[in-house]
Amino acid sequence: MASLFDTSELRSFRAEVRAFIHEHLPAEFAAKTRAGLHLHRDVVGRWQGILNRRGWGAPHWPLSAGGTGWDTYRRYIFEEECALADAPPGDVLGLFLAGPMLIAAGSEAQRTRYLPGILAGCEFWCQGFSEPNAGSDLASLKTTARRDGDHWVINGQKTWLTEGHQADLMFCLARTDDSVKPQAGLSQFIVDMKAPGISLQPILTMDEGHSVNAVFLDNVRVPGENLIGEPNRGWTYAKELLTRERTNNAQAPRTKRDIIALQRLAEAHPGPDGRPLMDDPIVRDRLAGLTADFVALESAVLSVLADEMAGREPGPEASILKIRGSELQQRVTETAMELLGEAGVVLEPGYGGGPRDPVARGWVERHLFRRVVTIYAGSNEIQRTIIARTILGM
Ligand SMILES: Cc1cc2nc3c(=O)[nH]c(=O)nc-3n(C[C@H](O)[C@H](O)[C@H](O)COP(=O)(O)OP(=O)(O)OC[C@H]3O[C@@H](n4cnc5c(N)ncnc54)[C@H](O)[C@@H]3O)c2cc1C
Fold it and tell me: Would you say 128 and 158 are in contact if contact means Cβ atoms under 8 Å apart?
């Protein structure tokens, strides 16, 4: 696929990033990233540390907070090169959610205490928003935080916490006032995952991997200074954060990597007549369709990122990116399953299956796990309602 950015300056920037990754990315990290989805924090953290020592720990943060000062195109090229090289993805929850929220709404003391750990890849975060009966209807959440002297006491149950079992800290949305309308009585707290009263239960997903958890909070005492921003403003911070999460979830660079891998798969894998699948015009047509839709997605992501650079927060267009990006991710792995045929239905050893044809490695797990991308970060049905209301005025 041809790149959209082709100035000589950007070409030399790309070459610099590519050379750095080539020299510093351990081959075992790339192999682990290629083979699966749920990476251990050690791998993610060590790669984050390598990038941070080069000054590239959080390209999308403001320069004053440890960012790189790169423009939108450079940030995108950097992400793209990392994805194409199968570098481990950064800790999305710290780098894209907790960090930006603390930069925007946290206290100076919180920024000093927590941002360095995210940048260095030694402290990991999880997001404690959803509850068993509060997902799409998040504002109905029941977890409470009550003031007790100079502490808050939190009680409730959170669910679906991505990487909760690997996290040191949680940003947790809890009800601090139930006398007002639901959205107006919520606050956000930084919670130490080792605090007394916290317990976790793993939830296994369809790919038989463990990345999500139920978390129970039983009289968890949180110091007063761990309130993020102002009390009862938690919903406002959450909305800003969910918008960022949706833009990030378009996952365009990694989808590009997957489409390239899909092309390689079609070149390497024989069809029923023994010839490479790529010789089949129907297969070529499918791949061309995915590539065209990818280019459209990439342009839309870049335009939202350019707005962000100009100081405009993304609005409902983030919902369009969420829908198009997540559906494309699913179509890519669905196509892989069709191309692989029987080779695609064998699970990894340890998950009840035999050895996998190397060409199929990672595809089945990705295909199964990617059922979630149209659900999390706000389901696609909810995003369609946002678009209908705010863009179409319905
Ligand atoms: C793998 C995974 C990881 C996750 N990670 C996290 C995390 O780290 N932290 C966190 O806080 N949460 C996390 N979530 C939770 C996620 O945000 C919620 O699952 C999501 O918001 C949907 O909520 P729900 O599961 O309660 O489904 P529900 O809200 O019960 O929805 C069920 C179905 O009904 C549809 N629906 C609901 N309301 C409407 C409506 N008004 N109009 C039309 N259709 C509607 C939905 O689209 C969906 O199809 C994760 C979820 C998954 C699956």
Answer: yes
Q: Which of 136, 242, 319, 380 to mutate to test the pocket of ligand 1 (most atoms within 8 A of CB)?
A: 136
How much is the pLDDT for 34? 85
Give the chain's end-to-end CA distance (angstroms, integer). 38
pLDDT in tens, 296-326: 999 998 888 778 778 787 778 888 999 999 9
What per-residue confidence (pLDDT) applies to 14?
96
Please state the atom number of ligand 1 nearest to the C-alpha of residue 136: 29
Residue whose CA lies nearest to ligand 1 atom number 17? 376
DSSP string over 114-178: HHHHHHHT---EEEE--BTTBSTTGGG---EEEEETTEEEEEEEE---TTGGG-SEEEEEEES-S
Query: CATH number of the domain at 249-390, out of 3.30.1050.10, 1.20.140.10, 3.40.50.720, 2.60.200.30?
Result: 1.20.140.10
* Position 3 pLDDT exceeds 60: no
